[in-house]
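Dig into what follows:

_____
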Amino acid sequence: MHGSRRRPHRVVVTAGHVDHGKSTLLRALTGMEPDRLDEERRRGLSIELGFVWCTLAATSNHPSDLEVAFVDVPGHERFIATMLAGAGSAPAALLVVAADDGWSAQTQEHAEVLALLGTPVVATAVTKSGRVAVDRVAEVVADVRDRSRGLGLTDRQPVVTDAIEGRGLDELRRTLRDGLAAVPEAADGGRPRLWVDRRFVIAGTGTVVTGTLTGGPVRLGDRVAVLPDDLPGRVRGLEALGGDVDAAGPGQRVAINLGGVDRSQIDRGDAVVGATTWPVTDTVEGWLHVLPGRAVGRRGAWHVHVGTAATAARIAPVTGEVAGTDDERGQGAVRVLLERPLPLAAGDILVVRDAGRSRTVGAVHVVDPRPGAPPRGRVARADHARLVEQAAAADGTARLPLLVALAGGLRPVDDLAAATGWTGTTPLPTDLVRVGTHVATDGRWQTWVEALAGLGTGSHARSDVLDALRGARVPADLLDAALANLVEVGRLVAVDTGFALPEHADDETLRRERRRRAVVESLLAEPFAPPPLDEVARSHGADARDVAALVQRGDVVRLGKVAFAAEAVRSAAHALRGSPLAGRPFAAAEAREVVPTSRKYLIPLLEHLAR
Protein backbone atom coordinates (compact mmCIF):
# COMPACT_ATOMS: atom_id res chain seq x y z
CA MET A 1 0.00 0.00 0.00
CA HIS A 2 2.27 2.77 -1.29
CA GLY A 3 1.03 5.58 -3.52
CA SER A 4 1.65 9.05 -4.76
CA ARG A 5 -1.77 10.51 -5.39
CA ARG A 6 -5.15 11.36 -3.90
CA ARG A 7 -8.58 9.97 -4.71
CA PRO A 8 -11.22 12.56 -3.71
CA HIS A 9 -14.76 11.21 -3.44
CA ARG A 10 -18.01 11.50 -1.51
CA VAL A 11 -19.49 8.90 0.85
CA VAL A 12 -23.16 7.82 0.97
CA VAL A 13 -24.69 5.33 3.41
CA THR A 14 -27.78 3.31 2.52
CA ALA A 15 -30.77 3.06 4.84
CA GLY A 16 -33.94 1.01 4.72
CA HIS A 17 -35.77 -2.16 5.73
CA VAL A 18 -34.38 -5.66 5.22
CA ASP A 19 -35.18 -7.12 1.78
CA HIS A 20 -36.10 -3.73 0.30
CA GLY A 21 -33.32 -4.14 -2.25
CA LYS A 22 -30.50 -1.92 -0.98
CA SER A 23 -27.71 -4.33 -1.94
CA THR A 24 -29.37 -5.22 -5.26
CA LEU A 25 -29.68 -1.53 -6.10
CA LEU A 26 -26.02 -0.88 -5.30
CA ARG A 27 -25.01 -3.86 -7.43
CA ALA A 28 -26.90 -2.34 -10.36
CA LEU A 29 -25.47 1.16 -9.77
CA THR A 30 -21.84 0.14 -9.31
CA GLY A 31 -21.39 -3.31 -10.86
CA MET A 32 -19.79 -4.39 -7.57
CA GLU A 33 -20.89 -6.87 -4.89
CA PRO A 34 -21.61 -5.17 -1.53
CA ASP A 35 -22.23 -8.44 0.38
CA ARG A 36 -18.77 -9.62 1.44
CA LEU A 37 -19.73 -12.77 3.39
CA ASP A 38 -20.72 -16.14 1.88
CA GLU A 39 -23.58 -16.30 4.36
CA GLU A 40 -24.90 -12.94 3.17
CA ARG A 41 -24.93 -14.04 -0.46
CA ARG A 42 -26.46 -17.42 0.43
CA ARG A 43 -29.28 -15.93 2.53
CA GLY A 44 -29.75 -12.77 0.45
CA LEU A 45 -29.45 -10.83 3.71
CA SER A 46 -26.86 -8.20 4.63
CA ILE A 47 -25.30 -8.90 8.02
CA GLU A 48 -22.13 -6.82 7.92
CA LEU A 49 -21.24 -3.47 6.37
CA GLY A 50 -20.64 -3.55 2.62
CA PHE A 51 -18.59 -1.15 0.58
CA VAL A 52 -18.76 -0.38 -3.16
CA TRP A 53 -18.15 2.64 -5.37
CA CYS A 54 -18.79 4.12 -8.78
CA THR A 55 -18.35 7.27 -10.83
CA LEU A 56 -21.36 9.53 -11.36
CA ALA A 57 -21.01 11.07 -14.80
CA ALA A 58 -21.01 14.81 -15.40
CA THR A 59 -24.37 16.42 -16.14
CA SER A 60 -25.50 19.74 -17.55
CA ASN A 61 -25.72 21.04 -13.96
CA HIS A 62 -22.41 19.49 -12.87
CA PRO A 63 -19.71 19.50 -15.56
CA SER A 64 -17.28 17.10 -13.83
CA ASP A 65 -17.48 13.43 -12.90
CA LEU A 66 -17.84 12.54 -9.22
CA GLU A 67 -16.64 9.39 -7.51
CA VAL A 68 -18.99 8.10 -4.83
CA ALA A 69 -18.39 5.40 -2.21
CA PHE A 70 -21.44 3.61 -0.80
CA VAL A 71 -21.57 2.04 2.66
CA ASP A 72 -24.26 -0.65 2.58
CA VAL A 73 -25.84 -1.37 5.97
CA PRO A 74 -28.01 -4.31 7.06
CA GLY A 75 -31.72 -3.62 7.25
CA HIS A 76 -32.82 -6.27 9.76
CA GLU A 77 -33.76 -4.98 13.21
CA ARG A 78 -31.35 -7.50 14.81
CA PHE A 79 -28.47 -5.68 13.13
CA ILE A 80 -29.42 -2.11 14.05
CA ALA A 81 -26.10 -1.68 15.89
CA THR A 82 -24.27 -2.47 12.65
CA MET A 83 -26.49 -0.01 10.78
CA LEU A 84 -25.59 2.67 13.34
CA ALA A 85 -21.90 1.86 12.89
CA GLY A 86 -22.25 2.48 9.15
CA ALA A 87 -24.32 5.63 9.51
CA GLY A 88 -22.39 7.17 12.40
CA SER A 89 -19.73 8.94 10.31
CA ALA A 90 -21.47 9.09 6.93
CA PRO A 91 -22.00 12.61 5.55
CA ALA A 92 -24.96 11.68 3.29
CA ALA A 93 -27.57 8.94 2.84
CA LEU A 94 -29.59 7.07 0.21
CA LEU A 95 -32.96 5.96 1.62
CA VAL A 96 -34.45 2.84 0.03
CA VAL A 97 -38.12 1.76 0.25
CA ALA A 98 -39.63 -1.19 -1.64
CA ALA A 99 -42.77 -0.54 -3.67
CA ASP A 100 -44.38 -3.83 -2.57
CA ASP A 101 -43.83 -3.41 1.20
CA GLY A 102 -43.86 0.37 1.48
CA TRP A 103 -42.67 2.33 4.51
CA SER A 104 -42.14 -0.14 7.38
CA ALA A 105 -41.31 0.09 11.08
CA GLN A 106 -37.66 -0.57 10.29
CA THR A 107 -37.70 2.10 7.57
CA GLN A 108 -39.04 4.46 10.22
CA GLU A 109 -36.23 3.64 12.67
CA HIS A 110 -33.53 4.04 10.03
CA ALA A 111 -35.07 7.34 8.94
CA GLU A 112 -35.29 8.53 12.56
CA VAL A 113 -31.61 7.69 13.05
CA LEU A 114 -30.67 9.77 9.99
CA ALA A 115 -32.80 12.65 11.27
CA LEU A 116 -31.22 12.49 14.74
CA LEU A 117 -27.73 12.45 13.24
CA GLY A 118 -28.59 15.32 10.91
CA THR A 119 -27.48 13.22 7.92
CA PRO A 120 -28.91 14.70 4.69
CA VAL A 121 -30.76 12.25 2.46
CA VAL A 122 -29.43 13.07 -1.01
CA ALA A 123 -31.78 10.65 -2.80
CA THR A 124 -34.70 8.34 -2.06
CA ALA A 125 -35.26 5.24 -4.18
CA VAL A 126 -38.56 3.36 -4.41
CA THR A 127 -37.36 -0.09 -5.49
CA LYS A 128 -38.98 -3.22 -6.97
CA SER A 129 -41.44 -1.12 -8.97
CA GLY A 130 -41.81 -3.91 -11.56
CA ARG A 131 -43.51 -6.16 -9.00
CA VAL A 132 -46.58 -4.01 -8.33
CA ALA A 133 -49.22 -2.01 -10.14
CA VAL A 134 -48.63 1.58 -11.20
CA ASP A 135 -51.21 2.85 -8.69
CA ARG A 136 -49.38 1.12 -5.84
CA VAL A 137 -46.08 2.67 -6.92
CA ALA A 138 -47.66 6.13 -6.94
CA GLU A 139 -49.15 5.53 -3.49
CA VAL A 140 -45.78 4.50 -2.03
CA VAL A 141 -43.96 7.41 -3.69
CA ALA A 142 -46.42 9.89 -2.15
CA ASP A 143 -46.15 8.25 1.28
CA VAL A 144 -42.34 8.18 1.21
CA ARG A 145 -42.19 11.81 0.11
CA ASP A 146 -44.55 12.95 2.89
CA ARG A 147 -42.83 10.94 5.63
CA SER A 148 -39.37 12.09 4.54
CA ARG A 149 -40.49 15.70 4.60
CA GLY A 150 -42.16 15.20 7.97
CA LEU A 151 -38.88 14.00 9.46
CA GLY A 152 -36.97 16.86 7.83
CA LEU A 153 -34.87 14.46 5.74
CA THR A 154 -35.42 15.71 2.20
CA ASP A 155 -37.82 17.55 -0.09
CA ARG A 156 -36.60 15.66 -3.16
CA GLN A 157 -39.06 13.55 -5.13
CA PRO A 158 -38.40 9.80 -4.67
CA VAL A 159 -36.99 8.06 -7.75
CA VAL A 160 -38.91 5.00 -8.97
CA THR A 161 -36.48 2.16 -9.74
CA ASP A 162 -36.26 -1.52 -10.52
CA ALA A 163 -32.70 -2.80 -10.28
CA ILE A 164 -33.47 -6.08 -12.06
CA GLU A 165 -35.03 -4.34 -15.07
CA GLY A 166 -32.63 -1.36 -14.94
CA ARG A 167 -35.54 1.09 -14.58
CA GLY A 168 -34.80 4.53 -13.10
CA LEU A 169 -31.07 3.98 -12.55
CA ASP A 170 -29.94 6.89 -14.73
CA GLU A 171 -32.42 9.19 -13.01
CA LEU A 172 -31.20 7.98 -9.61
CA ARG A 173 -27.60 8.71 -10.61
CA ARG A 174 -28.58 12.26 -11.62
CA THR A 175 -30.51 12.72 -8.38
CA LEU A 176 -27.54 11.51 -6.35
CA ARG A 177 -25.28 13.89 -8.27
CA ASP A 178 -27.59 16.85 -7.63
CA GLY A 179 -28.12 15.89 -4.00
CA LEU A 180 -24.42 15.57 -3.24
CA ALA A 181 -23.71 18.91 -4.88
CA ALA A 182 -25.99 20.50 -2.28
CA VAL A 183 -24.11 18.93 0.65
CA PRO A 184 -21.04 20.92 1.75
CA GLU A 185 -17.78 18.99 1.64
CA ALA A 186 -16.53 17.77 5.01
CA ALA A 187 -14.70 20.44 6.98
CA ASP A 188 -10.99 20.17 7.69
CA GLY A 189 -10.56 21.08 11.34
CA GLY A 190 -7.04 19.68 11.58
CA ARG A 191 -8.20 16.89 13.93
CA PRO A 192 -8.41 13.64 11.95
CA ARG A 193 -10.42 10.81 13.49
CA LEU A 194 -11.38 7.54 11.87
CA TRP A 195 -13.87 5.31 13.69
CA VAL A 196 -12.79 1.76 12.83
CA ASP A 197 -15.48 -0.36 11.16
CA ARG A 198 -13.20 -3.20 9.97
CA ARG A 199 -9.73 -4.43 10.83
CA PHE A 200 -7.74 -7.25 9.24
CA VAL A 201 -4.24 -8.38 8.32
CA ILE A 202 -2.79 -8.48 4.80
CA ALA A 203 0.14 -10.86 4.41
CA GLY A 204 3.34 -8.92 3.96
CA THR A 205 1.61 -5.63 4.81
CA GLY A 206 0.33 -5.92 8.36
CA THR A 207 -2.62 -4.45 10.22
CA VAL A 208 -5.22 -2.59 8.15
CA VAL A 209 -8.22 -0.65 9.46
CA THR A 210 -11.03 0.92 7.45
CA GLY A 211 -13.57 3.63 8.10
CA THR A 212 -14.87 7.04 7.08
CA LEU A 213 -12.38 9.78 7.93
CA THR A 214 -13.63 12.93 9.64
CA GLY A 215 -12.12 16.10 11.08
CA GLY A 216 -8.93 16.35 9.03
CA PRO A 217 -6.55 14.62 6.60
CA VAL A 218 -4.14 11.71 7.08
CA ARG A 219 -0.91 11.29 5.13
CA LEU A 220 1.71 8.63 4.64
CA GLY A 221 4.15 8.72 7.54
CA ASP A 222 1.78 10.46 9.98
CA ARG A 223 2.06 9.52 13.62
CA VAL A 224 -1.33 8.41 14.93
CA ALA A 225 -2.85 6.87 18.03
CA VAL A 226 -5.55 4.22 18.46
CA LEU A 227 -7.98 5.26 21.18
CA PRO A 228 -9.24 4.68 23.81
CA ASP A 229 -6.17 2.56 24.67
CA ASP A 230 -3.73 5.20 23.35
CA LEU A 231 -1.73 2.81 21.19
CA PRO A 232 0.91 4.69 19.16
CA GLY A 233 1.18 3.88 15.47
CA ARG A 234 2.29 5.20 12.12
CA VAL A 235 0.54 5.40 8.74
CA ARG A 236 2.53 2.96 6.58
CA GLY A 237 0.07 2.93 3.69
CA LEU A 238 -3.24 4.41 2.53
CA GLU A 239 -5.84 3.11 0.10
CA ALA A 240 -9.02 4.74 -1.20
CA LEU A 241 -11.52 3.22 -3.65
CA GLY A 242 -9.22 0.28 -4.27
CA GLY A 243 -6.15 2.33 -5.16
CA ASP A 244 -3.03 3.43 -3.29
CA VAL A 245 -2.90 7.09 -2.28
CA ASP A 246 -0.50 9.24 -0.29
CA ALA A 247 -3.18 11.26 1.53
CA ALA A 248 -6.91 11.17 2.28
CA GLY A 249 -9.19 14.00 3.31
CA PRO A 250 -12.12 14.31 5.71
CA GLY A 251 -15.38 12.79 4.50
CA GLN A 252 -13.63 10.01 2.57
CA ARG A 253 -13.50 6.22 2.93
CA VAL A 254 -9.98 5.04 3.59
CA ALA A 255 -8.01 1.94 4.53
CA ILE A 256 -4.98 2.64 6.72
CA ASN A 257 -2.05 0.26 6.99
CA LEU A 258 -0.93 0.82 10.59
CA GLY A 259 2.64 0.26 11.65
CA GLY A 260 3.34 -0.55 15.29
CA VAL A 261 -0.17 -1.83 16.11
CA ASP A 262 -1.25 -5.47 16.11
CA ARG A 263 -4.67 -6.47 14.75
CA SER A 264 -5.50 -8.11 18.09
CA GLN A 265 -5.20 -4.72 19.79
CA ILE A 266 -7.90 -3.06 17.65
CA ASP A 267 -11.63 -3.61 17.36
CA ARG A 268 -14.64 -1.97 15.75
CA GLY A 269 -15.49 1.13 17.73
CA ASP A 270 -11.88 2.14 18.35
CA ALA A 271 -10.73 5.39 16.77
CA VAL A 272 -7.54 6.22 14.89
CA VAL A 273 -6.68 9.86 15.53
CA GLY A 274 -3.95 12.24 14.53
CA ALA A 275 -1.38 13.25 17.12
CA THR A 276 -3.60 16.01 18.49
CA THR A 277 -5.20 16.21 21.92
CA TRP A 278 -8.34 14.07 22.12
CA PRO A 279 -10.17 13.70 25.43
CA VAL A 280 -10.91 10.05 26.17
CA THR A 281 -13.83 10.43 28.52
CA ASP A 282 -16.42 8.42 30.39
CA THR A 283 -18.67 11.41 31.15
CA VAL A 284 -20.14 14.02 28.83
CA GLU A 285 -22.75 16.73 29.04
CA GLY A 286 -25.02 17.52 26.15
CA TRP A 287 -28.41 18.47 24.80
CA LEU A 288 -30.78 15.54 24.33
CA HIS A 289 -33.42 15.36 21.60
CA VAL A 290 -36.05 12.71 22.38
CA LEU A 291 -38.32 11.31 19.66
CA PRO A 292 -42.10 11.84 19.92
CA GLY A 293 -43.68 9.42 22.37
CA ARG A 294 -40.34 8.53 24.01
CA ALA A 295 -38.84 9.62 27.33
CA VAL A 296 -35.50 9.52 29.14
CA GLY A 297 -35.31 9.73 32.92
CA ARG A 298 -32.82 8.77 35.59
CA ARG A 299 -34.01 5.18 35.49
CA GLY A 300 -33.56 2.96 32.50
CA ALA A 301 -30.94 0.91 30.69
CA TRP A 302 -29.44 2.72 27.74
CA HIS A 303 -26.99 2.06 24.95
CA VAL A 304 -25.31 4.93 23.12
CA HIS A 305 -23.76 4.78 19.66
CA VAL A 306 -21.25 7.22 18.15
CA GLY A 307 -19.19 6.65 15.04
CA THR A 308 -18.76 2.87 15.01
CA ALA A 309 -18.60 2.64 18.82
CA ALA A 310 -21.33 1.43 21.15
CA THR A 311 -21.44 1.24 24.93
CA ALA A 312 -23.86 0.93 27.81
CA ALA A 313 -24.55 4.20 29.60
CA ARG A 314 -26.43 5.89 32.41
CA ILE A 315 -28.21 9.14 31.61
CA ALA A 316 -28.94 11.80 34.22
CA PRO A 317 -31.20 14.67 33.08
CA VAL A 318 -30.07 17.98 34.58
CA THR A 319 -33.55 19.31 35.37
CA GLY A 320 -35.80 16.23 35.21
CA GLU A 321 -37.19 13.73 32.73
CA VAL A 322 -36.89 14.63 29.05
CA ALA A 323 -40.00 13.45 27.19
CA GLY A 324 -41.53 13.94 23.77
CA THR A 325 -45.24 14.46 23.22
CA ASP A 326 -47.22 12.38 20.74
CA ASP A 327 -46.29 14.82 17.96
CA GLU A 328 -43.23 16.76 19.11
CA ARG A 329 -39.72 15.95 20.25
CA GLY A 330 -38.65 16.53 23.83
CA GLN A 331 -35.43 18.38 24.65
CA GLY A 332 -33.25 18.85 27.69
CA ALA A 333 -29.77 18.93 29.17
CA VAL A 334 -28.32 15.62 30.31
CA ARG A 335 -25.15 14.10 31.71
CA VAL A 336 -24.16 10.78 30.13
CA LEU A 337 -21.96 8.33 32.05
CA LEU A 338 -20.36 5.86 29.64
CA GLU A 339 -19.42 2.33 30.62
CA ARG A 340 -16.60 2.44 28.05
CA PRO A 341 -14.47 5.59 27.74
CA LEU A 342 -14.49 7.07 24.24
CA PRO A 343 -12.58 9.82 22.38
CA LEU A 344 -15.26 12.49 22.09
CA ALA A 345 -15.40 16.20 21.35
CA ALA A 346 -17.98 18.97 21.38
CA GLY A 347 -20.32 18.51 18.41
CA ASP A 348 -20.35 14.71 18.45
CA ILE A 349 -23.79 13.07 18.40
CA LEU A 350 -24.64 10.05 20.55
CA VAL A 351 -27.63 8.02 19.36
CA VAL A 352 -29.49 6.69 22.41
CA ARG A 353 -31.32 3.35 22.36
CA ASP A 354 -33.50 1.80 25.04
CA ALA A 355 -31.68 -1.44 25.87
CA GLY A 356 -34.78 -3.06 27.33
CA ARG A 357 -37.17 -2.27 24.48
CA SER A 358 -34.54 -2.36 21.70
CA ARG A 359 -35.64 0.91 20.14
CA THR A 360 -34.09 4.27 19.36
CA VAL A 361 -35.25 7.02 21.71
CA GLY A 362 -33.18 10.06 20.78
CA ALA A 363 -29.73 11.58 20.44
CA VAL A 364 -27.39 13.64 22.61
CA HIS A 365 -25.46 16.50 21.02
CA VAL A 366 -22.23 16.55 23.02
CA VAL A 367 -21.47 19.99 24.44
CA ASP A 368 -18.78 19.25 27.00
CA PRO A 369 -16.70 16.06 26.94
CA ARG A 370 -14.98 17.05 30.19
CA PRO A 371 -17.71 18.43 32.45
CA GLY A 372 -17.01 19.53 35.99
CA ALA A 373 -19.07 18.65 39.03
CA PRO A 374 -22.83 18.67 38.39
CA PRO A 375 -24.69 21.77 39.58
CA ARG A 376 -26.58 21.65 42.87
CA GLY A 377 -29.87 23.33 43.62
CA ARG A 378 -32.87 23.93 41.39
CA VAL A 379 -31.85 27.42 40.24
CA ALA A 380 -28.25 26.38 39.52
CA ARG A 381 -29.43 23.36 37.53
CA ALA A 382 -31.83 25.49 35.48
CA ASP A 383 -29.08 28.04 34.73
CA HIS A 384 -26.70 25.24 33.81
CA ALA A 385 -29.25 23.66 31.48
CA ARG A 386 -29.72 26.99 29.66
CA LEU A 387 -25.97 27.22 29.08
CA VAL A 388 -25.92 23.66 27.72
CA GLU A 389 -28.77 24.49 25.34
CA GLN A 390 -27.01 27.63 24.09
CA ALA A 391 -23.72 25.76 23.64
CA ALA A 392 -25.44 23.00 21.66
CA ALA A 393 -26.83 25.60 19.26
CA ALA A 394 -23.50 27.44 18.92
CA ASP A 395 -20.60 26.49 16.69
CA GLY A 396 -16.93 27.27 16.27
CA THR A 397 -15.53 30.03 18.45
CA ALA A 398 -19.06 31.06 19.51
CA ARG A 399 -19.15 27.90 21.64
CA LEU A 400 -15.97 28.76 23.58
CA PRO A 401 -17.40 31.34 26.06
CA LEU A 402 -20.26 28.97 26.88
CA LEU A 403 -17.90 26.08 27.59
CA VAL A 404 -15.83 28.29 29.85
CA ALA A 405 -19.00 29.47 31.60
CA LEU A 406 -20.08 25.85 32.12
CA ALA A 407 -16.78 25.31 33.97
CA GLY A 408 -17.54 28.16 36.36
CA GLY A 409 -15.97 30.90 34.27
CA LEU A 410 -12.41 29.53 34.27
CA ARG A 411 -11.06 26.65 32.19
CA PRO A 412 -7.59 25.31 31.29
CA VAL A 413 -6.50 26.15 27.75
CA ASP A 414 -5.54 22.53 27.02
CA ASP A 415 -8.91 21.33 28.27
CA LEU A 416 -10.73 23.79 26.02
CA ALA A 417 -8.58 22.75 23.07
CA ALA A 418 -9.25 19.05 23.65
CA ALA A 419 -12.99 19.66 23.88
CA THR A 420 -13.29 21.79 20.74
CA GLY A 421 -10.13 21.66 18.64
CA TRP A 422 -9.51 25.37 19.30
CA THR A 423 -5.85 26.27 18.84
CA GLY A 424 -3.96 28.97 20.64
CA THR A 425 -3.17 30.68 17.34
CA THR A 426 -6.85 31.48 16.78
CA PRO A 427 -8.02 34.72 18.49
CA LEU A 428 -10.37 34.28 21.42
CA PRO A 429 -13.81 35.91 21.38
CA THR A 430 -13.79 39.33 23.02
CA ASP A 431 -15.74 38.09 26.05
CA LEU A 432 -12.91 35.70 27.02
CA VAL A 433 -9.57 36.57 28.62
CA ARG A 434 -6.40 34.48 28.36
CA VAL A 435 -4.76 34.19 31.78
CA GLY A 436 -1.63 32.05 31.66
CA THR A 437 -2.63 28.43 31.18
CA HIS A 438 -6.35 29.24 31.54
CA VAL A 439 -9.15 31.12 29.85
CA ALA A 440 -11.60 33.17 31.91
CA THR A 441 -14.96 34.66 31.06
CA ASP A 442 -15.07 38.43 31.17
CA GLY A 443 -17.50 38.16 34.09
CA ARG A 444 -15.11 36.03 36.16
CA TRP A 445 -12.19 38.29 35.28
CA GLN A 446 -14.16 41.38 36.35
CA THR A 447 -14.52 39.93 39.86
CA TRP A 448 -10.73 40.00 40.08
CA VAL A 449 -10.67 43.62 38.96
CA GLU A 450 -13.31 44.50 41.55
CA ALA A 451 -11.23 42.81 44.26
CA LEU A 452 -8.41 45.25 43.54
CA ALA A 453 -10.64 48.22 44.35
CA GLY A 454 -10.37 47.36 48.04
CA LEU A 455 -6.63 47.99 48.01
CA GLY A 456 -7.13 51.73 48.35
CA THR A 457 -4.65 54.51 47.64
CA GLY A 458 -0.90 54.37 47.54
CA SER A 459 1.36 51.54 46.54
CA HIS A 460 0.87 47.96 47.64
CA ALA A 461 3.26 45.10 48.17
CA ARG A 462 3.02 42.11 45.87
CA SER A 463 1.81 39.95 48.78
CA ASP A 464 -1.11 42.33 49.45
CA VAL A 465 -2.21 42.21 45.82
CA LEU A 466 -2.03 38.42 45.79
CA ASP A 467 -4.11 38.26 48.98
CA ALA A 468 -6.80 40.37 47.28
CA LEU A 469 -6.82 38.01 44.31
CA ARG A 470 -7.08 34.97 46.59
CA GLY A 471 -10.14 36.59 48.11
CA ALA A 472 -11.62 36.75 44.59
CA ARG A 473 -11.16 32.95 44.27
CA VAL A 474 -8.21 33.07 41.88
CA PRO A 475 -6.67 29.56 42.01
CA ALA A 476 -3.24 29.41 43.64
CA ASP A 477 -1.53 28.20 40.47
CA LEU A 478 -2.93 31.19 38.53
CA LEU A 479 -2.07 34.00 40.93
CA ASP A 480 1.12 35.05 39.16
CA ALA A 481 -0.51 34.87 35.72
CA ALA A 482 -3.54 36.85 36.91
CA LEU A 483 -1.29 39.53 38.36
CA ALA A 484 0.72 39.76 35.13
CA ASN A 485 -2.48 39.95 33.10
CA LEU A 486 -3.91 42.77 35.22
CA VAL A 487 -0.69 44.76 34.81
CA GLU A 488 -0.57 44.03 31.08
CA VAL A 489 -4.06 45.42 30.47
CA GLY A 490 -3.59 48.44 32.74
CA ARG A 491 -5.77 47.46 35.70
CA LEU A 492 -2.66 47.59 37.88
CA VAL A 493 0.45 49.69 37.49
CA ALA A 494 3.91 48.50 38.47
CA VAL A 495 5.67 51.10 40.63
CA ASP A 496 9.06 51.07 42.34
CA THR A 497 7.57 49.96 45.67
CA GLY A 498 5.11 47.39 44.30
CA PHE A 499 1.80 48.01 42.54
CA ALA A 500 -0.83 50.73 42.44
CA LEU A 501 -4.27 51.18 40.98
CA PRO A 502 -4.05 53.35 37.86
CA GLU A 503 -6.22 56.06 39.43
CA HIS A 504 -3.74 56.33 42.30
CA ALA A 505 -0.54 56.31 40.26
CA ASP A 506 1.24 59.51 39.32
CA ASP A 507 1.06 60.78 35.77
CA GLU A 508 4.60 59.76 34.86
CA THR A 509 4.02 56.17 36.02
CA LEU A 510 0.84 55.97 33.96
CA ARG A 511 2.58 57.32 30.89
CA ARG A 512 5.37 54.77 31.36
CA GLU A 513 2.92 51.87 31.60
CA ARG A 514 1.01 53.07 28.54
CA ARG A 515 4.28 53.11 26.58
CA ARG A 516 5.09 49.59 27.70
CA ARG A 517 1.63 48.27 26.87
CA ALA A 518 1.86 49.86 23.43
CA VAL A 519 5.14 48.02 22.80
CA VAL A 520 3.55 44.66 23.65
CA GLU A 521 0.48 45.38 21.52
CA SER A 522 2.67 46.25 18.53
CA LEU A 523 4.53 42.95 18.90
CA LEU A 524 1.21 41.10 19.06
CA ALA A 525 -0.04 42.75 15.87
CA GLU A 526 2.17 40.24 14.01
CA PRO A 527 2.64 37.65 16.76
CA PHE A 528 4.94 35.23 14.93
CA ALA A 529 6.78 37.80 12.79
CA PRO A 530 7.09 40.81 15.11
CA PRO A 531 9.00 43.94 14.12
CA PRO A 532 12.38 44.62 15.80
CA LEU A 533 11.89 45.37 19.50
CA ASP A 534 14.13 48.45 19.53
CA GLU A 535 12.25 49.97 16.58
CA VAL A 536 8.90 49.33 18.27
CA ALA A 537 10.17 50.84 21.51
CA ARG A 538 11.40 54.00 19.77
CA SER A 539 8.12 54.39 17.89
CA HIS A 540 6.27 54.55 21.22
CA GLY A 541 8.83 56.68 23.05
CA ALA A 542 9.95 53.79 25.25
CA ASP A 543 13.56 53.67 26.43
CA ALA A 544 15.98 50.91 27.41
CA ARG A 545 14.61 50.92 30.96
CA ASP A 546 11.11 50.23 29.62
CA VAL A 547 12.37 47.39 27.43
CA ALA A 548 14.31 45.86 30.32
CA ALA A 549 11.24 46.01 32.55
CA LEU A 550 9.09 44.28 29.93
CA VAL A 551 11.62 41.46 29.62
CA GLN A 552 12.09 41.18 33.38
CA ARG A 553 8.34 41.07 34.00
CA GLY A 554 7.94 38.35 31.38
CA ASP A 555 5.75 40.41 29.05
CA VAL A 556 8.36 40.13 26.29
CA VAL A 557 10.60 37.16 25.47
CA ARG A 558 13.90 38.15 23.87
CA LEU A 559 15.51 35.41 21.76
CA GLY A 560 18.78 36.67 20.32
CA LYS A 561 18.03 39.19 17.57
CA VAL A 562 14.24 38.72 17.72
CA ALA A 563 11.70 39.33 20.46
CA PHE A 564 8.16 38.04 20.90
CA ALA A 565 5.28 39.04 23.10
CA ALA A 566 5.01 36.38 25.81
CA GLU A 567 1.43 35.69 24.76
CA ALA A 568 2.63 34.78 21.25
CA VAL A 569 5.15 32.31 22.69
CA ARG A 570 2.42 30.68 24.77
CA SER A 571 0.15 30.48 21.73
CA ALA A 572 2.87 28.83 19.65
CA ALA A 573 3.59 26.29 22.39
CA HIS A 574 -0.08 25.46 22.74
CA ALA A 575 -0.56 25.10 18.97
CA LEU A 576 2.41 22.74 18.67
CA ARG A 577 1.25 20.63 21.63
CA GLY A 578 -2.13 20.19 20.00
CA SER A 579 -0.79 19.45 16.51
CA PRO A 580 0.12 16.16 14.79
CA LEU A 581 3.77 17.05 15.52
CA ALA A 582 3.34 16.52 19.26
CA GLY A 583 5.35 13.70 20.75
CA ARG A 584 7.73 13.15 17.82
CA PRO A 585 10.74 14.78 16.17
CA PHE A 586 9.80 17.18 13.38
CA ALA A 587 11.43 19.45 10.85
CA ALA A 588 11.13 23.23 10.87
CA ALA A 589 9.19 23.05 7.59
CA GLU A 590 6.53 20.94 9.33
CA ALA A 591 6.34 23.38 12.25
CA ARG A 592 5.68 26.24 9.80
CA GLU A 593 2.33 24.61 8.96
CA VAL A 594 1.34 25.05 12.62
CA VAL A 595 3.10 28.34 13.41
CA PRO A 596 3.09 30.31 10.15
CA THR A 597 6.27 32.37 10.01
CA SER A 598 9.72 32.46 8.41
CA ARG A 599 12.82 30.59 9.58
CA LYS A 600 14.21 33.86 10.96
CA TYR A 601 11.58 33.75 13.70
CA LEU A 602 10.73 30.07 13.79
CA ILE A 603 14.17 28.65 14.59
CA PRO A 604 14.83 30.74 17.74
CA LEU A 605 11.23 30.18 18.83
CA LEU A 606 11.54 26.39 18.49
CA GLU A 607 14.92 26.40 20.25
CA HIS A 608 13.38 28.35 23.13
CA LEU A 609 10.42 25.98 23.42
CA ALA A 610 12.72 22.95 23.34
CA ARG A 611 14.64 24.06 26.45
Observations:
- The chain has five domains: 10-181, 193-274, 280-393, 394-505, 507-611.
- Confidence is low (pLDDT under 50) at residues 37-47.
- The longest strand covers residues 330-343.
